[in-house]
Amino acid sequence: MTETLMPYDDAIAAFDPAMGLEVHVELSTNTKMFCGCSVEFGAEPNTQTCPTCLGLPGSLPVINGKAVESAIRIGLALNCEIAEWCRMARKNYFYPDMPKNFQTSQYDEPIAFDGYLDVEVDGETYRVEIERAHMEEDTGKSLHVGGATGRIQGADYSLVDYNRAGIPLIEIVTRPILGAGEKAPAVARAYVATLRDLLLGLDVSDVRMEQGSMRCDVNLSLAPKGSDELGTRTETKNVNSLRSVERAARFEVSRQAALLQAGESILQETRHFHEDTGSTTSGREKSDADDYRYFPEPDLVPVAPSREWVAELKAALPVPLREQRAQLQADWGFTDLEMRDVVAAEAVGLIAETVAAGAPPQAARKWWVAELTRRANEDGVELTELPITPAQVAAIQALVDAGTLNDKLARQVFDGVLAGEGEPDAVVAARGLAVVSDDGALGEAIDRAIEANPDVAEKIRDGKHAAAGALIGAVMKDMKGQADAGRVRELILEKLA
To answer: What distance in Å separates the CA atoms of residue 236 and residue 239, rounded to the nearest whole number?
Structure first.
């Protein structure tokens, strides 16, 4: 069924959006949350399981100490209070990929609560309040076979892989984000991007959204302009890219506004986001907390981190993200506008890695913020999803610095690397892209350019050296962009000036 949509600007003019974001983060531990099974990604289905994570009778869980430490560090980095005493709870619901038919999570006693994270959008700072960050375990994975979408609708049958069941998760839940207006979807994206950078800096997760190790549920509701009451919310589940977080929020604004404008009500439900269309579709009616029949987990002792341990972890936290960026800006010599563009492109970490690999900061910024961001936008993917590494970008720039390539040829090398043709050196060799600096070959091309442009040559002989640009352009065209432009200019002036 095709949803009726209201134009986004019209929807924002009539309604105020409120958002709540729930981000699930898989922690970088060696074993699962309550057992010793491996958490390595990509193993054969159902090879990383045991009686505990399968919920077999008689098995008993033991909490992962490294996961508790990571949860505390995340909470501290988010300016949260850390509980002196908390415990796990059972969240009861049936799903095919829930081997125990309940999820071991936290309910009314999270390990971290009452924090905030500041994010920037178009030069404005928005404070996103954190309600809680709590520990839990992941579910398994359903694989729907047959059909065109990979979803259960239209599938011939379904399989279940329990390798992921029991992997340690932190769920970070915001309070309603209000007052962002038309920028609400952009604020949602900026929040998830900033949170991803923070978690990377803490080294608690690889936050690979495309692999599911960081996922965002987007809760959104609309209220009439000026209303103090929140509207009925929907929850778009498991959105797995920054771009999709923004698109899902925009779509729900337009969809809900159209329903409300027509006098219809919003159903409280979960919804699925579709990458190909940028739309959401209905999933299931959304349950409230009471429906999950939470009760304390009887097989696990409470978690009571000592104040001394929490203080030690706080003292060892990395420099806050805002300070890190200020220091990077100073080290790289970027203007405020250049750094703002880097942050907006979500390229801070990529540029840092490229500089660490040997590239000059301005060159790294040029390639990531301009060239590669454009390509990512054209392909409809995140910058981090492009099949090129910071080390490869640095290698291409090294070839430019050595005079082997110019910027035009470098872009062709990017083409080759992104197409999977190998490392930059291999692409240069295979495509024959090296700059020609041989005076003999250049001299022949210059002679052809002079013969074709006698009036320009005469101007240079008369001392108008600026006219050399026209001949240089002709030589570059003749040699398909592979001439050393600096050497071409020198030879032209030697011959004519």
So the answer is: 7
Angle at 482 between CA 480 and CA 488, to 5 degrees: 105
Q: CA-CA distance, 374 to 381, in Å (whole number)? A: 10
Average pLDDT over residues 372-399: 92
Question: Long-range contacts: 293-297, Cβ < 8 Å, 24+?
Answer: 293/92, 294/89, 294/90, 294/91, 294/92, 294/107, 294/108, 295/89, 295/90, 296/87, 296/88, 296/89, 296/90, 297/61, 297/87, 297/88, 297/89, 297/90, 297/104
CA 409 to CA 396: how far, in whole Å?
10
Q: What does the domain layout of the chain look like in residue ranges?
A: 8-312, 319-431, 439-496
Q: What is the pTM of this model?
A: 0.81
Summarize the confidence of residues 23-50 as an average pLDDT.
Answer: 95
Structure tokens at 31: 């074993």
Q: How far apart are CA 279 and CA 249, in angstroms?
A: 10
In whole angstroms, what is the distance from residue 445 CA to residue 479 CA?
7
Q: Which amino acid is at 57?
A: P
Q: Are strands 269-274 and 234-239 parallel, antiparallel or unpaired?
A: parallel
- Two tokens at 421? 């043709």
Is the pLDDT at 381 greater than 90? The verdict is: no
Q: Are 38 and 163 in contact (CB under 8 A)?
A: no
320 band by pLDDT with thresholds 50, 70 and 90: confident
Sorting pLDDT into bands at 50, 70 and 90, what band is 350? very high
In sequence order, the 6+-apart residues with CB closer than 8 A to the CB of 432 are: none
DSSP state of 272: E
pLDDT tens digits for range 278-291: 899 988 776 565 67
Separation CA 125–CA 118 (nearest Å): 6
Q: State yes or no: pLDDT of 105 exceeds 70.
A: yes
pLDDT of residue 483: 64
For residue range 162-191, list pLDDT tens digits in order: 999 999 999 999 999 999 999 999 999 999
C-alpha angle with apex 135: 134 to 139, nearest 5 degrees? 120
Distances (CA, A) of 347 to 316, 341, 358, 485, 488: 26, 9, 17, 31, 36
At 308, the pLDDT band (50, 70, 90 cuts) reads: very high
Residue 337 belongs to what H/E stretch?
A: helix 336-344
- Token code pair at residue 46: 């159902």
State which CATH number among 1.10.10.410, 3.10.490.10, 1.25.40.20, 2.140.10.10 fits the domain covering 439-496: 1.10.10.410
